């Protein structure tokens, strides 16, 4: 588990999501990365049931249950600013049992699927974010395997990102923020994905490219 | 007193007179209360002269209350006395008993006085003490204790002896029974070694390894039967046993796994021939009953079958570069080219027809006992694994499987880590690795030996370590030359097949003052696939710079050695370090011959 940066690639002007993804992947292949299969990260939202809310009517918290194909036997559960729980796949069954406390928000399942590329010590995953049947955006995840401390390798990651993302390179993710010397873990990756999905959910739907 | 008028005080006694009778006209006749003297008389009647002195005092105290009346009453008592004698009958006179007692007391006192006065004179009466038996000598309390202890011990001894008698009786009975070999006692003995259970009216036992963790689907059930073919008239044979076991037919006889390495590849037609040479059964412990040997042999057969089944399953499933051949009861694989490893299950039943094969001559050197033993060990390892706590979940509600696999969820293992957890080499791969190792080791030893015998200067010595792994060995090769204390180098060579091994040689400080001595430059054997071996050696070179080197190249006949050594060394004269890179390849060299330039 190395330091990972998850960012969003804006859709190129006049192109569809798929075409942008193709552009990116071609760039990567030209760089010399080798394809190593596919990946998938998905997220479901649950909110605390009304019955458990206090009489003051406090807003229920949102809980996200996520899976990552990189950790096939694990399931992640996290609150917005709260803790992230890493459990095994039986957690999904547990959520069914907790129906009384956590209700699934309808039509909130969001996922990203794409290909996985290995370029020496870097692992690049370019995926299409879809919500339901519609593609909403592009997610790019870069992992630098050897390092586990974010502050040590952020500059290297940035350079690498610049090499193929060009101007769309993101800034340092919020998770790196104040915890400079803490060992990076898979939970941080999932937090980044959660933030990305939330951002994309709030965005307008990608305008359909005009048919010329 | 004169001034105060006297007050009249009238006193009335509280007690009223008792009513004797009430007349018809209501008048009451009162009982005259007892007068003083009458009262005294009454009390005197109550005196009990037989009581002790204490009570007499009490009575006296009680009587003193009337003492003042005594004088007054005395006179009246005297009067009454006389009157009493005349008027009352003697028994009714209250003072009678008093008088009698006093009179008798007086009598006795007089007598005593008389006797004492006579005795005082010692003329007519003397006082003699009453003779008593001499007091027994003062008893020693210890002897008493001793006596009592003896008695109690005797009692205890009696009880113990009784019990001992009973025991000896039962023991002698057992001894007798042993000769007769009761079925039940024999069954008890059997039960101490094997698991038995009763099904209906049959007694069945289990000789499989299932309870020890095996997953082999063989039932391994044997039946215990009573041996009834005993002719009571004839003499009971020595090894008669009332119990007999019936083992499943496919586990009869004895079996072993034969592992052998052959150089040449056999004909296809030879594959699958059942190798049977009846290995003599391992000697059973003397005195163990025949059913024990039978059952142990059957269990061994079962284990060998399991090993072979596991091996053949892996041979078929696992994909390797050179496929393994499984024919009947033999598995053939090729760890190295031109080298063949064959594992076969030799099961010889006790039938007559197999006796023919017993004469087949098989060189016992072929059979690698070590590997067979290792196979047994490996399968037992596997058995233990299924039962170990690594597999059994703690807490009991956790899913089954390897402990680390259970943790891989909560600890977010990625694919690499999961794969490393799941890497499990099968039995076959392990055995092949071990076979390869044995082969390499023997060949290396042979090569080093041949090298040492050929090259006289410098001398090569090899010390093989005693502590070896099944996959690794280590040998210490000492290369020394006469007159060079500094030169001896120690290379510790430990190899794993297919692995690179880097060697760091200890440094090697050259003293320029001893330039006269030979500067020994390390012999390098560099082997390439096309058989070129270069051997560098500098003889008595005095000049360090640019002196010519004499080369000795050696080509030698190494059929099977595949050690590729390449040496990088610096031409720097104060050579400190030499790096030796040794690669072991699985290639075969052909002939090399020695030559010197």
TrEMBL record, chain A:
Molecular-function GO terms, alphabetical: transcription coactivator activity
InterPro entries: Mediator_Med20
GO cellular component labels: core mediator complex; mediator complex
Keywords linked to the UniProt accession: Activator, Nucleus, Transcription, Transcription regulation
Pfam families, per database record: Med20 (PF08612)
Main localization category: nucleus
Record-level GO BP terms: regulation of transcription by RNA polymerase II; skeletal muscle cell differentiation
Keyword Iron: no
Record text on subunit structure and interactions: Component of the Mediator complex, which is composed of MED1, MED4, MED6, MED7, MED8, MED9, MED10, MED11, MED12, MED13, MED13L, MED14, MED15, MED16, MED17, MED18, MED19, MED20, MED21, MED22, MED23, MED24, MED25, MED26, MED27, MED29, MED30, MED31, CCNC, CDK8 and CDC2L6/CDK11. The MED12, MED13, CCNC and CDK8 subunits form a distinct module termed the CDK8 module. Mediator containing the CDK8 module is less active than Mediator lacking this module in supporting transcriptional activation.
Role summary: Component of the Mediator complex, a coactivator involved in the regulated transcription of nearly all RNA polymerase II-dependent genes. Mediator functions as a bridge to convey information from gene-specific regulatory proteins to the basal RNA polymerase II transcription machinery. Mediator is recruited to promoters by direct interactions with regulatory proteins and serves as a scaffold for the assembly of a functional preinitiation complex with RNA polymerase II and the general transcription factors.
Similarity field: Belongs to the Mediator complex subunit 20 family.
Name the UniProt record assigns to this protein: Mediator of RNA polymerase II transcription subunit 20
Protein species of origin: Aotus nancymaae (Ma's night monkey)
Name of the gene this protein is made from: MED20
From TrEMBL, chain B:
Compartment(s) where it occurs, according to its Swiss-Prot or TrEMBL record: Nucleus
Skewed-composition ranges (Low complexity): 62-77
Record-level GO cellular component terms: core mediator complex; mediator complex
Single Gene Ontology BP annotation: regulation of transcription by RNA polymerase II
Record keywords, A-Z: Activator, Nucleus, Transcription, Transcription regulation
GO function terms (MF aspect): transcription coregulator activity
Region (Disordered): 51-83
InterPro entries reported for this sequence: Mediator_Med17
Known role: Component of the Mediator complex, a coactivator involved in the regulated transcription of nearly all RNA polymerase II-dependent genes. Mediator functions as a bridge to convey information from gene-specific regulatory proteins to the basal RNA polymerase II transcription machinery. Mediator is recruited to promoters by direct interactions with regulatory proteins and serves as a scaffold for the assembly of a functional preinitiation complex with RNA polymerase II and the general transcription factors.
Record's subunit section: Component of the Mediator complex, which is composed of MED1, MED4, MED6, MED7, MED8, MED9, MED10, MED11, MED12, MED13, MED13L, MED14, MED15, MED16, MED17, MED18, MED19, MED20, MED21, MED22, MED23, MED24, MED25, MED26, MED27, MED29, MED30, MED31, CCNC, CDK8 and CDC2L6/CDK11. The MED12, MED13, CCNC and CDK8 subunits form a distinct module termed the CDK8 module. Mediator containing the CDK8 module is less active than Mediator lacking this module in supporting transcriptional activation.
Family the UniProt entry places it in: Belongs to the Mediator complex subunit 17 family.
The protein's name in its UniProt record: Mediator of RNA polymerase II transcription subunit 17
Organism field: Aotus nancymaae
Lineage: Eukaryota, Metazoa, Chordata, Craniata, Vertebrata
Underlying gene: MED17
